[in-house]
Amino acid sequence: MNITLQSPDKARFSPVLLFSGTLFASAGLMFVLQPLFGKLLLPLLGGTPAVWNTCMVFYQTLLFLGYLYAHWLSSHHSGQRQVMIHLAILAISLIALPVALPTDLAPPNEGNPALWLVKTLFLAIGLPFFIISTTAPLLQNWFAHCGHHSSHDPYFLYAASNAGSLLALLSYPFVLEPNVGLADQRLFWSLGYGGLCLLVGLCAWLLWRSQANQNSQAANDEVEPLPVLDQLHWLALAFVPSSLLLGLTQFISTDIASVPLLWIVPLTLYLLTFILVFSKWGDALHPAMLAAQPALLLIFIAYSFINPALLPYWLDLILHSAAFFLASMVCHGELAKRRPHTRHLTRFYLIMSAGGMLGGLFNTFVAPFIFNAVYEYPIMIVAALLLRPGFFQPGWYLQAIFPALLLIGGFGIYFNTDELFDYLDVIGGALILLAGLCYALRQSPLGLGMLTAVILIFTFGLHSLASNTLYQERSFFGVLSVRETVIADENQHPEKVHELYHGTTKHGAERLTAANITTPLTYYSRPGPIGQLFSEYDAENQYWQIGAVGLGAGALACYAKDQQQWQFYEIDPRVVSIAKNPAWFNYLQRCNNRAEMVIGDARLSLQKAPDHSFNLLIMDAFSSDAVPTHLLTREALELYLSKLTDDGLLAFHITNRHLALKQVLADHVNQLHLSGLLQEFKPDHVVPLVVATDWVVISKHPERLLRLEQSQLGHWQKLPLTFGLRSWTDDFTNIFGIWK
């Protein structure tokens, strides 16, 4: 063993507090830096879940490189030599302070911007993040050679590291973001990094002293070499939860609810699993997690996949989160149980970080190119079941026969889709019964995993058929689909409709009958606020130049007149392709095929537009519940106003289930001495695809809005007064301050 007994004098000083405190501080700085720079970068690419997932891949890659460095340093150099090299690199890293984004950032307008995002992160925070990434394995290895009575098993320090990560993650949205601006956040983080360097220096000094006083007997202890299969097992046990983390984040943000900051939930649970499995309770918890995972599986599969419509979104979120937590606890519990001798500590952490990095790379750079939906998530649910202990029990291969026969025979139901719709309820019930059988196979990872895979394959296939999806494509910004549904028209006759979805959020719809094919619908209907605006200013808007942020299915184009000039600003080029395709939607082709399409983030694109050029600017970036906050800051509003003529109008679509966006705009109107009107529209009677929607119209002069205020078409009112709301700026936003 690599333990040197302490003398009574040295026993009075324990390095545990110093090392655990340093690891706690290091992890805390890491998980403050991640959301801090995420908040700086997300606006440049629209704030989609894929942007956060790409940031996560960068962090995981730097973490792997940090662990690789720690392994190299520990394997090739003595303790004192390690101290000299690492302190020199620490000193060099200080030149990166204070942390900041590179100047003149401009994301690409075409193609996948993931590589651009990784490059930007590397230039901005690559060096300090790399140094922080080395701390966990390096300091644990140093502690293992300090001669403390617990040096034989320093893995408990990993729990302290993850506790720091968890505290920082939760404190950012609830404490730091609401009270500290981005500029001060970057300054305080830089000061904290300097303090961390001092703490690492103290740990290095302690190792230096202990190395000088220890003999070399421990270095000659022999430890068994690591089998290759064990290392591959560690890799798989780290890969699957990492991929599950990003897959669940993408899935719940697009297919359950686009609730702001929802990504915190999976990441919090992920970190919590590391704290628990590497704590003193880890061994006792592991059997309970193994027993709970298949017990929850029946409810999870039956309600979250086979029939999710029965549950409210918050209960569905709880089920997904619980299943993810149990899967991660089982995988990470197996990792903790199989941790090696401290001589292999840095290799263990290196392989674990490699698995995490590969999981992120798979979700971000592989899955979007081979899947047209978030299929990596159910695949990893199955993979987590296959990693349960006991895979190669006697007769293990026989457990796969029943699921294989089901899969082969079940494909026959797809050959006659016309009759299939008559039996959807029966098939759904059969799938739920199969989900119940999963528990009977809980002792067989192969049988449990394969039966679950069969259920999920048929579930996704049936849902695709039932939704009548005509087209589906996945881009960096999410999953886009065109669906055909049937509604009852004004005379209660059936009528076909095409609908555009981003995940589960509807972004536009078009009726296909000749009389209604160019009628704007949903949030853009003629009875609604935006229709009222065009109607009230109909006499003077013949030659207007109009800009619209957000294209959707292109319904706004049907308000265009022949002499008007229209520009649509859309961040996702796939949306433009879908809206222009007459097989799916006809708005652009029939109403305004001359409209100019500008691809890229609206704020960056609008900066290039001539000043005082627009008579009307429509901000429709808020139809989903995912809020690009950078389009709502005071600086953003000042940019929009600079692009408007003196009598120009600025229309905001602010429909949102979770946030009272009208408060932010009301504060800006008050601070900038503007005039604004709000309408929270609800249809007086049922009209097909005319929905409730909220709009705000802003002008530089109050008399310009008199027509709307006195309108008989709708109920326009002044924006509400705001008290105690801190103004949103590029330096400060706080969504919790406007939570409904």
UniProtKB/TrEMBL annotation:
The chain crosses the membrane at residues 16-38, 50-70, 82-101, 121-143, 155-175, 187-208, 234-253, 259-278, 290-311, 317-336, 348-375, 395-416, 423-442, 448-466. Gene3D superfamilies: Vaccinia Virus protein VP39 (3.40.50.150). Keywords: Membrane, Polyamine biosynthesis, Transmembrane, Transmembrane helix. The keyword Membrane applies. GO terms for biological process: polyamine biosynthetic process. It comes from the Bacteria. PANTHER family: THERMOSPERMINE SYNTHASE ACAULIS5. This is Fused MFS/spermidine synthase.
